[in-house]
Amino acid sequence: MLHALAATQVNEGTEREVFFINQLSSAHVVEYSKSSADFIVDHQYTIEVGGCSKDGKRVAGIANGYIASANEEYVLGNKLPLWLFGFLY
After folding, report:
1. Cα 10 off chain centre by
2. H or E stretch at 12
3. Separation between Cα atoms, residue 57 and residue 37, nearest integer Å
């Protein structure tokens, strides 16, 4: 949708975040986080959405803090592949 509606090049970070929200918002409560991460899901999971180079600094020390990372193939610690969220819709 973003590519069809945008008059200019779509920002990759925006595209990732819109995908994440789209996949979860039909069955979960997704809110913007007031902390350093991107989103809070169901009032308990803190999610930072980013590329494969995203480190865990923004969710470090946060209980239930995860990174939804693009270009990852498998789960590694609290780093989850972004594509897995596509199965939730």
Report:
1. 17
2. helix 12-24
3. 9
